């Protein structure tokens, strides 16, 4: 081989190697092969078990990972896939991860779909080094068994590893959750405005919602997520969530996004805001239903300082809303604004549902002087 030919071959190897090491460029939406439709070569499969660490394009795996096609039958259970025809299943101590190029110090949210299979107390570790969260997925919020979850992080580096890990220790190593449709979204946390002391009061800034997903996205409690996928707001709960819904699939009171309180009194939507003790304030908000068949006597409880308001809403399950307000006097320099569903509710198919909250604003009000 001549010197020039050797140089061409070396250049080709260099280009191929660089392509193999290239990081995924982050744009809002599915990650590269985020829906796992591009699968392993048959030579890297032992039945459904993936045998090669890099067998799934754009992903690196470790542990017991299976490549599942929709309709796959296992004992007396048929495994469905929410999007496309393929998904992965993470067995005991299994991990799937992808390296991403991000903007340092920027905020991002991850959205992915997951479904339980045979384990009863499944949970998932989601991490972008050095941050991680533990998401409990034992409660199912859809009739299909698939839910979309969100998790947020602030990038500490310009190149990061996104990992989803099943820490389970089941007797059957294959008894783990199915994972599909992993997406990312750049978050732009809104600031308070002159007309609203709350950040993201219209709830328009939040996690990525898949265009074909009719079930919304679950936002985890703050204990599992240092940076909320719903900027400005904290989800207070032990293991339950709120549901973030969109106008293409739900009846939203205002704009394109709203929050459905699906876990009764176990979960609260909370924001802390700076206030002046003794000053009067007015909290205004919309209460309604998502038009998703949640037909019941719904009610939202709102709290601020020492004031409380219970706002009832008779839902026919077809959409609609009404405005409500809570006037209060601040008693501290920091006031928590809190929303909870007054009770638990279910749709005819047995899945959890609840009242919508949207278009939330907080303003300072001046009390008129009493006439002599």
Can you give a write-up of this model?
InterPro entries: DGR2-like_dom, Galactose-bd-like_sf, Pectin_Meth_Modulator. This is DUF642 domain-containing protein. Strand 7 and strand 8 form a beta hairpin. Helices cover 5% and strands 44% of the residues. Strands 1, 5, 10, 12, 13 and 15 form a six-stranded mixed β-sheet that branches. Strands 2, 6, 9, 11, 14 and 16 form a six-stranded antiparallel β-sheet that branches. The N and C termini lie far apart (106 Å). The protein folds into two domains: 166 residues, Jelly Rolls (Sandwich), CATH 2.60.120; 131 residues, Sandwich (Jelly Rolls), CATH 2.60.120. With 372 residues, the protein is mainly beta.
Descriptors:
1 helix; disordered N terminus; six-stranded antiparallel beta sheet; six-stranded mixed beta sheet; 5% helix; mainly beta; Jelly Rolls; 372 residues
Helix-strand layout with pairing:
Elements (H helix, E strand, L loop, with lengths): L2 H19 L2 E2 L3 E2 L14 E2 L2 E2 L9 E3 L2 E5 L2 E3 L2 E3 L6 E5 L3 E8 L5 E9 L7 E6 L2 E6 L9 E9 L4 E8 L11 E10 L29 E3 L14 E3 L5 E5 L10 E4 L7 E7 L5 E10 L7 E8 L2 E8 L5 E10 L4 E8 L3 E2 L5 E2 L2 E10 L7
Parallel strand pairs: 1-10
Antiparallel strand pairs: 2-16, 3-4, 5-10, 6-9, 7-8, 9-16, 10-15, 11-14, 11-16, 12-13, 12-15, 17-19, 18-21, 19-20, 20-29, 21-26, 22-25, 22-29, 23-24, 23-26, 27-28
